[in-house]
Design goal:
alpha+beta, eight-stranded antiparallel sheet, seven-stranded antiparallel sheet, 17 strands, 23% helix, elongated
Length: 555
């Protein structure tokens, strides 16, 4: 391009690269371009290229307002500075990405809005606007959601969640097993009334006391606190009532009700309670007899136990399940126990009130028959602690353990290796030691082996063989002295012996030897008393009979 074409007259303003006829004089106001150096200037003399024109800012005595560029058009006199119409939370435009929107300077955003507003206000309605005029479009301000509308759905969601939680809680409560007695009726009223015990003892009146916070560690013999059961009863369902005789001695009756979540849980609890009655674990009580009881509910069991102390108080214990509820009852009247049939009959009224809320079988007429003691849980098929009497009343506790491998020599008169009976299909040994009795001889205790045979004939043949060998031991051994003391009644086969083996001229080792069989099982027992510390013959025969009963409880 020639220098003449690049320059205009001194009085003529530079124009944009647009046709001049499209702009009016008022619309042609723009930026001035700096004139290139005149001929003969130093730059031209050096022959260097002419630098690009430098923009010249228009001079103005008015100071730029905040948010405006110097190049912006003058604002009308009545223009007022206002806050930007677009907030930080407004969505980005459809044509600019969020990144571009954030990168833009705040002045640029405000300038566009101002220039658009000013341009539209200054252009006359009938004025023609050039196609390339820099008039920014005004973006409509985004609608602002009212506060109450923005919070509507979160509040609705919270309300729905709260309603679901409340509905679930109410559903769980509606399906929770009912505790007999309910909310409006005291559960203790479902237990026996004093008048219902009138048949227990003639001339005796009873006074009832409800235990607000029952202590299950006392008052009921042989049973453990319900909290120690594998599946405890429902919370708050245990209630107890104690009846005290106001005349004729120190007789008492204690009743306890336990309600469980369902019938299956109650059945499991009944089995656990029955096992506790069968062996009286953790107590020095002696289990005397067992009973079957009918007509009271879905399941019933009863035993007679004796406190092994100087008083020797006798307790009648009954456990009945009706539906989801257990009733445990304990009656004692000193050394003169109440009759078991009368005691069972006194529970009919209470069980009739309990059976409805517990969805169980209601009591009718109680029937009682003597039976074997319930199975014990310590060593199934072997003796339990509740089967062994104390030697000294009030002191001593029997502790048992299984012996593996078996080790038992016996009295030396049995004529067979007791740990290797070839005709037996199985054998298990337990040893019991009496602790806590200061009068006991050293290591006073009892050994027991329970045998199982293929047939009843094999079991009986083993028993008769041992009995014969012990009976004839004095004939075959000069050091042995044998005394046959008693035998078990038929159909069982069993015998008790005392065997003294002379060790020195003035010392002998005494053994209590017992052997018996019934059905396909046989038992052998040997104790090591002294003449000064020993159980009675009757007591040892009772232990032998109980050992045989336990062996029959094996599957």
């Amino acid at each position: 391009m020639s220098e003449e074409s690049a320059m205009t007259d001194a009085d003529e303003r530079p124009r944009r690269a647009l046709p001049s006829e499209d702009l009016t004089d008022s619309e042609s106001a723009g930026r001035h371009w700096a004139a290139p150096p005149a001929e003969g200037d130093e730059a031209d003399a050096l022959g260097t290229p002419v630098p690009p024109p430098i923009p010249v800012l228009p001079t103005s005595e008015r100071v730029a307002s905040a948010g405006r560029r110097f190049s912006a058009d003058d604002l009308p006199d009545d223009w007022e500075d206002k806050a930007p119409r677009r907030s930080a939370t407004s969505p980005a435009s459809f044509h600019a990405s969020p990144t571009e929107e954030l990168d833009a300077e705040p002045d640029d955003v405000e300038l566009d809005a101002e220039r658009s507003a000013v341009a539209r206000s200054e252009v006359a309605p009938d004025a023609e606007v050039a196609p390339d005029a820099e008039v920014a479009l005004v973006r409509p301000a985004p609608a602002v959601t009212p506060l109450h509308v923005r919070w509507f759905w979160p509040v609705v969601a919270i309300a729905v969640a709260a309603a679901l939680v409340l509905a679930g809680t109410l559903f769980a409560r509606m399906n929770k097993p009912a505790v007999p007695g309910g909310v409006g009726t005291p559960r203790s009223s479902l237990l026996s009334e004093p008048a219902e015990l009138s048949a227990l003892r003639a001339g005796t009146t009873w006074t009832a006391t409800n235990d607000i916070a029952p202590d299950e560690s006392k008052g009921l013999r042989c049973v453990t606190p319900s909290s120690q059961l594998k599946t405890p009863p429902l919370e708050g369902s245990v209630v107890r009532r104690t009846f005290t005789a106001s005349s004729e001695g120190d007789a008492t009756v204690v009743q306890q009700v336990e309600t469980y979540a369902d019938a299956d849980a109650a059945k499991a609890a009944f089995t656990a309670r029955s096992i506790q009655l069968g062996g009286c674990p953790g107590t020095p009580d002696l289990v005397n007899r067992g009973f079957t009881v009918g007509g009271l509910g879905d399941q019933s069991v009863a035993v007679t136990v004796t406190e092994q102390d100087a008083a020797a108080r006798v307790h009648q214990l009954v456990v009945v399940r009706t539906g989801t509820t257990l009733l445990i009852a304990d009656a004692t009247a000193g050394q003169e126990p109440v009759a078991m049939d009368a005691f069972a009959a006194s529970l009919v009224g209470s069980l009739q009130r309990l059976c409805g809320p517990s969805a169980g079988t209601c009591a009718t007429t109680a029937t009682v028959a003597e039976a074997d003691v319930p199975p014990a849980g310590e060593f199934p098929g072997s003796l339990a602690a509740g089967d062994l009497p104390r030697v000294t009343p009030g002191v001593g506790t029997w502790v048992g353990a299984e012996i593996k491998p078996m080790k038992l020599a016996g009295s030396g008169c049995e004529g067979v290796d007791l740990t290797a009976v070839t005709t037996a299909t199985s054998a298990v040994q337990h040893a019991y030691l009496l602790t806590g009795d200061p009068a006991a001889s050293a290591n006073f205790g009892l050994d027991e082996i329970v045998y199982a045979f293929a047939s009843e004939a094999d079991a009986k043949a083993f028993t008769e063989s041992v009995i014969a060998d012990v009976t004839d031991c004095a004939k075959n051994q000069a050091t042995a002295t044998v005394t046959a003391l008693g035998s078990l009644e038929a159909p069982a086969t069993g015998q008790l012996f005392t065997v003294d083996q002379r060790k020195t001229i003035d010392k002998a080792a005494r053994s209590r030897v017992m052997v018996a069989s019934s059905g396909e099982h046989a038992v052998y027992l040997a104790a090591n008393p002294t003449p000064e510390f020993d159980l009675s013959d009757e007591a040892w025969l009772g232990v032998l009979q109980r050992a045989l009963t336990r062996a029959k409880q094996l599957p």
